[in-house]
Amino acid sequence: MEPVTIGLVALLLVVLLLALRVPIAFALAGVAALGTFFVHATGQGAWLPAEAAVQTGAAIFADAFDLVHSYDLSMVPLFIILGNIAFYAGITIRIYDAAAVWLRPLPGGVAMASILGCGGFSAISGSSVACASTMGRICVPEMLRLGYDPRLATSSVAVGGTLGALIPPSILFILYGVFTGTPIAQLFLAGILPGLLSLAGMLLVVAWWVGGDPAAAPRAEAAESSRIDAVLAAWPAVLLFVIIVGGLYSRLLTAPETAAVCVVLVVVLGFVQRRLTPEILLRTLRESLIQTAAIFLVAAAAKIFVGFVALSGLDAALVNWAEGAGLSFFAMIAASVAIYLILGMFFEPIGILVLTLPFAVPLVEGFGMDLIWFGVVVVKLLEIGLITPPVGLNVFVIGNVARDVGIDRVFAGVMRFLAIDILVLLILILFPIISTLIPASM
């Protein structure tokens, strides 16, 4: 059997296993190991299982070792720790508190504050699911208590949580940078304007929704706390975001150094403000370790799969097929968008990312496209996948938080935001400068 054929069969087998809900790490690593074995065993025109077993073991060990010892990958545990400690220290919700004080009396003001709070949370944590889970517990009960339409209350937090994928720091951008060799600092900065554009679009949807149906968001009384005090209380979150963006843009700090500085700062702030204790810190580190191990396991499996794809020559065959078919730039982009949107309906973002990059990146490079711009487009597509039925991960997270609101009602609300997300995606595709402007000015 030809190596390319083995690669194609392996790819179909991975998709089948994922559809059967086999964990992504086991599906990728298991199929890649089996495929690598068959390529080596049949590569010399004879069946050589003993030699193939040795070569397969060496290839798997080398790929996993290289990935785990990647300097850039050290940002994953650092930013996970940063987000968790900032949550326990009460830093991540201060943006919401400040926005709620100012916007509460406006039509749909609490929903807008929730979206802004999700943006502020994302600027520290880098995790969309963590953002939706945390902000959902805070914002959704408050909006339901005020008489908000359950569809608006739940969907605004579900879509706001997706901002964690674009606004730096972003775990998806880190993994994309590791697997494509793209500077992660530039990817972080490239996500700022698209993230703000997405945020603005979400706020417009809330305003349009409430404007057409005022009963969906009854006006709330102004908060008793001082507006100035609420803004001043948010200074730790603003400081962390300034350090991340300013350190990367000025090149005074690398991305891992930025993460390390912020972790130290947030620990100090937590103890100074007496919101952290040694017991809470230990619990936070334990949770971060579990989350990091899960991501590293998937990343290591993906690295093994990437090595197998290169060995089989499936990526080169795909590029040759695209060139032979005479696909235009827009045809290739349209096909990529369709594939990512379809996969986003069924699989979680990290799984989609590591599964598709071995094939997408050679095509992108073959068409001479900017990898930073393409990274933003891919992450935006993965962000949309977090709220698309039938498996919108953020929607189910909010559904678990607001058990009295059915999943169907959450999806019904989310549908109003999907149109603006698709519009933002189209703008990012047609105007790459939105993504490349800040990185290019460094």
UniProtKB/TrEMBL annotation:
Membrane topology qualifier: Multi-pass membrane protein
Major site of localization recorded for this protein: membrane
Superkingdom of origin: Bacteria
Name of the protein this chain belongs to: TRAP transporter large permease
Task of the protein: Part of the tripartite ATP-independent periplasmic (TRAP) transport system.
InterPro entries per record: DctM (IPR010656), TRAP_DctM (IPR004681)
Organism of derivation: Paracoccus marinaquae
Locations listed in the record: Cell inner membrane
